[in-house]
Amino acid sequence: MNLDAETIKQIIALGSLFVAVIGLWHKLVILPIKEELKLNATSIRTLEIDSAKLDTTLTALTNAIDRLTDRLDRE
Questions:
Q1: Whole-number Å distance between alpha carbons of 40 and 48
Q2: Which residues span the membrane (predicted)?
């Protein structure tokens, strides 16, 4: 296979174009998806914390209601 200088330049240009398209795809598609996944993970963690707080509050309210019910039953 005999490659002249012009053919080698064209192959290099095509390779450069290919790399540029992959870089653009990464910037426009992959990075936003990764950022969205990070935000979703943060949101899930926040919901887990809120859920734990709600569980604690519900337990405290249930205990308070039980104590009030016991007091009313004694009276």
A1: 12
A2: 12-30
